[in-house]
């Protein structure tokens, strides 16, 4: 049974996609149909050179092909978190959340996934509009205000249960 089909049959497929040199496929790989399941892809020379650092600079040891997961397979996941960090990924983040869904920027497809979370650092937001950054920071503040009281209640319950377990001392 193909891996992509098997993953659909499992209770749930959870994915973590990191926008790093090793996994640029979802950020910028165009011309690959979104419905493609798992497939083998020949890596570009740029990627091979970038990956050489993980193999002590020896190009002979660097894999030239990679097994990739199609976006269609990842879109079947219950939840997706995409981590985009660093100044070199600013354009990818911009295309992922500020532009519309576009076949040239595969990562933009996740705008249509109901439970996608984009996690990024300050450097990655440099190409975003100020209005966009303020919007998402505002969402984070509202979320924290809603969630913090729940954690406070839980912490008090834990403290109370731990204090009742302490042995009696004079």
TrEMBL record:
InterPro entries: Glucosamine6P_isomerase (IPR004547), NagB/RpiA_transferase-like (IPR037171)
Keyword Hydrolase: yes
Keyword flag Transport: no
Coiled coil: none
Keywords: Carbohydrate metabolism, Hydrolase
GO molecular function: glucosamine-6-phosphate deaminase activity; identical protein binding
Name of the molecule in the record: Glucosamine-6-phosphate deaminase
Organism name: Marmota monax (Woodchuck)
């Amino acid at each position: 049974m193909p891996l992509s089909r098997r993953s659909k049959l499992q209770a749930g497929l959870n994915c973590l996609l990191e926008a790093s040199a090793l996994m640029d496929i979802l950020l910028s790989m165009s011309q690959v149909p979104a419905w493609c399941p798992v497939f083998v892809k020949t890596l570009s020379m740029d990627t091979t050179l970038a990956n050489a650092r993980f193999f002590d600079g020896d190009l002979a040891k660097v894999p030239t092909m990679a097994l990739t997961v199609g976006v269609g397979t990842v879109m079947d996941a219950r939840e997706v978190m995409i981590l985009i960090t660093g100044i070199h990924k600013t354009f990818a983040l911009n295309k992922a959340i500020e532009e519309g869904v576009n076949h040239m920027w595969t990562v933009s497809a996740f705008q249509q996934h109901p439970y996608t979370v984009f996690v990024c650092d300050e450097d990655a937001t440099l190409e975003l509009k100020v209005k966009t950054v303020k919007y998402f920071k505002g969402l984070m503040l509202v979320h924290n205000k809603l969630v913090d009281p729940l954690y406070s209640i839980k912490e008090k319950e834990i403290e109370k249960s731990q204090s009742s377990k302490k042995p009696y001392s004079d």
